[in-house]
Design brief:
Elements: H1 2-9, H2 22-30, E1 41-47, E2 50-58, E3 62-69, E4 82-83, E5 89-95, E6 102-109, E7 115-118, E8 134-135, H3 146-151, H4 153-156, E9 163-167, E10 174-175, E11 181-182, H5 185-199, E12 203-206, E13 210-211, E14 224-228, H6 235-247, E15 251-256, H7 282-285, E16 286-287, E17 292-293, H8 300-316, E18 321-324, H9 327-331, H10 353-369, E19 374-377, E20 399-401, H11 403-413, H12 425-428, E21 439-443, H13 455-458, H14 463-479, E22 483-487, H15 512-530, E23 544-548, E24 556-562, E25 569-575, E26 581-588, E27 593-599, E28 615-617, E29 628-634, E30 638-644
Parallel strand pairs: 9-12, 9-22, 12-15, 15-18, 18-19, 19-20, 20-21, 21-22
Antiparallel strand pairs: 1-2, 2-5, 3-6, 4-5, 6-7, 6-8, 10-11, 13-14, 16-17, 23-24, 24-25, 25-30, 26-29, 27-28, 27-30
Helix pairs in contact: 2-8, 5-6, 8-10, 14-15
């Protein structure tokens, strides 16, 4: 009896109703449709009193497209879709199908006899891996982050503090009593919000939450460009997490991957029996490093697809920024390729002109519709003007990761202190280019995997020196111009490399050196946020001055950070050796009492307790070209921050 009812409900597909209009078709084929998620995919609908779902998919070289799922026992032929003119769109309304129904598209190509069962590129939700079906869903959710959304421009602007906590949701914290399962979006929400608030970070950045078949890719092999991974819950559950963070005053940045996509058969690759989303020639369409496909940025419909995905996360999930992964791999046709393995552009060069156009268009579209957010580029070369407007020839990003600083500092910090004087330029070189871009200083996930060791284990010396060195590294990062990013686990000194299948080692916080490091990061964040001299001119040379950057013999540096007000000034001194420097003279821009506001060698942080008894009075003796000077103690492997107490 049940089978007869099912046959009655699902006996036919209706083609006299469509969401996709002629205008939509024109914009899509032109590459200018930026909200395809409102039109394509699976949309539950009430048509003439009949509940059902309207399906729409792009497959221009298909001979036949049908919908199959639980509703028709996965029959590949009973529910065909119809082509919409010459647009390449196939669509149809199937009555009786509602939210929660699992489905795929069965595609028969007009070429080579190719047939495949494909997940919906525009699906809002997918089955939990290793299953690969799409699920009919909606995005109904009542947001409660109105105050944040109204004021978020003030949290994301270039002249405000930005300390980003980079998080992989599946391994931040797990439940060992339940077979070591990850927390769900809803479970992690209050815990992460409270922790980030307590630690003083301003934003979290999620490694890609978009659906991905291989968990070990950390989300960087995306198949669901409009669907959060179902490993941790539903789309509404992710909305709840972001909502919770926003209500606690925490911004949310999402990693987004338009650079490549995996070759899994149910995904975008060879979608309709042709290279629809990717380049046909492997010299442009296949990544040798990641064994994945490269989008064809010259195809208008692919541009519409990707730009719609970008706006989707900003609009529907209230993301405050998009960090674009692997930008360098998009910009260069010869990226990670040997001679003869790549195709020059029309002028004979190595630049990917189509990708450059796409990235510029991406930034123009995002900032036009969402001027309160930021776009951030992970770009590892010296490509010019990545974070400069497109109208002056830039790529248009709001910010760029400073990969050079990350590399130089980690190489420097791994040196034994006795040898650091021979590598002093790695401390100071950054200031030759620090204001060429709007930089974020990252200590990211990429630096604590694949045998590279944890940040703590990279540091030389015994256990005490390792912790002192790491406190010094973090302090120097916060003293430098640029926004800050730290990957989870670094803030309390994990000994182990990050492993995506395990929780962070939270038990370490019961031990003094780890809790001391955690307290240091917490105090650094709160101090950074309270001192406008440390962030207002992050992207302007007016905010930075060396006092002395040439004392390589002692491996010390001293600098000033300046805010918008002339009274707003912070002095920073670093000692990169374990030898305390007593009676160390340093120039100062003005007289009065200079308060020691923060000292990484304080006992509460696990240090030796050497310092300056709360501060030092400046004397009118010119040193380092400054009209005044201070005589200080520089603690071993330490950093100290001073502010002029007379101006407090």
């Amino acid at each position: 009896m049940a089978l007869k009812v099912k046959e009655k409900i699902y006996k036919e597909v209706s083609y006299d109703f469509r969401i996709f209009s002629d205008d939509d078709r024109y914009l899509f084929n032109e590459g200018s449709h930026f909200r395809l998620y409102e039109k394509m995919g699976a949309h539950p609908f009430n048509k003439d009193g009949r509940e059902g779902t309207c399906f729409s998919v792009w497959a221009p070289d298909a001979e036949q497209v049908s919908v199959m799922g639980d509703f028709n026992d996965w029959n590949k032929s009973t529910h065909p879709l119809a082509p919409y003119g010459q647009s390449g769109i196939w669509e149809g309304f199937i009555p009786g199908i509602g939210k929660g129904e699992t489905y795929k598209y069965h595609i028969i190509s007009r070429y080579h006899g190719y047939q495949a069962d494909k997940a919906d590129p525009f699906a809002l939700y997918h089955e939990v891996s290793p299953k690969t079906g799409s699920i009919v869903w909606d995005l109904d959710y009542t947001w409660e982050d109105h105050e944040w959304m109204e004021k978020r421009q003030g949290h994301n602007a270039p002249d405000v503090p930005m300390a980003i906590y980079e998080v992989h949701l599946g391994s931040w914290m797990r439940v060992p009593e339940e077979e070591n399962r990850p927390l769900t979006y809803r479970e992690i929400a209050p815990l992460l919000a409270e922790y980030v608030n307590q630690m003083g970070f301003t934003h979290v950045e999620f490694l890609p939450v978009m659906e991905h078949p291989f968990y070990g890719s950390w989300g960087y092999q995306t198949t669901g460009y409009f669907a959060p991974t179902s490993r941790y819950g539903t789309p509404q559950d992710l909305m709840y997490l972001i909502d919770c963070l926003h209500q606690k005053g925490i911004g949310v940045i999402m990693d987004w991957v338009p650079s490549h996509f995996p070759t899994d058969e149910h995904g975008l690759g060879y979608f309709d029996g042709t290279h629809l989303y990717e380049h046909a020639d492997a010299r442009k369409g296949f990544h040798p490093d990641w064994e994945s496909f490269i989008f064809n940025y010259g195809r208008n419909e692919v541009r519409s697809f990707l730009l719609s995905s970008a706006l989707f996360w900003l609009e529907k999930y209230h993301a405050d920024g998009l960090r674009v992964d692997a930008v360098a791999s998009m910009l260069y046709l010869d990226y990670s390729r040997n001679k003869g393995e790549w195709i020059p552009n029309q002028y004979g060069g190595r630049e990917n002109l189509e990708a450059i156009w796409f990235l510029r268009r991406f930034n123009e579209v995002v900032y036009k519709d969402f001027p309160q957010v930021q776009t951030m580029a992970e770009e590892s070369t010296d490509w010019p003007m990545v974070s400069r407007p497109t109208y002056v020839g830039g790529l248009g990003f709001g910010m760029k990761w400073d990969m050079g600083w990350m590399h130089d500092m980690l190489v420097y910090m791994t040196k034994e202190p006795i040898h650091r004087k021979y590598h002093h330029n790695q401390l100071t070189f950054r200031m030759l280019y620090a204001f060429h871009e709007n930089f974020i200083l990252p200590l990211s996930h990429d630096e604590v995997v694949h045998g590279k060791g944890s940040l703590l284990n990279k540091m030389p010396g015994d256990a005490w020196q390792k912790f002192a060195n790491l406190r010094l590294l973090f302090g120097y990062m916060y003293a430098q111009p640029g926004k800050k990013l730290l990957f989870m686990g670094g803030e309390f000194g994990q000994w182990n490399e990050w492993y995506h299948e395990a929780s962070l080692d939270w038990h370490l916080l019961q031990y003094g050196p780890h809790s001391g490091l955690s307290l240091w990061v917490k105090d650094l964040n709160h101090f950074y946020r309270s001192e406008s001299a440390l962030y207002e001119f992050d992207f302007d040379p007016a905010g930075f001055t060396w006092i002395d950057c040439q004392d390589s013999e002692s491996s010390t540096v001293s600098l000033l950070r300046q805010g918008r007000s002339s009274d707003d000034i912070i002095m920073v001194l670093c000692n990169f050796t374990p030898v305390p420097r007593f009676n160390y003279q340093v120039g100062a821009p003005r007289g009065g009492f200079w308060q020691e506001a923060l000292n990484s060698d304080a006992l509460e942080y696990g240090g030796s307790g050497q310092g300056n008894s709360g501060g030092v009075e400046a004397v009118p003796l010119s040193v380092h070209g400054q009209p005044y000077s201070l005589t200080l103690t520089l603690p071993p492997l330490g950093i100290v921050f001073f502010r002029n107490k007379s101006q407090l």
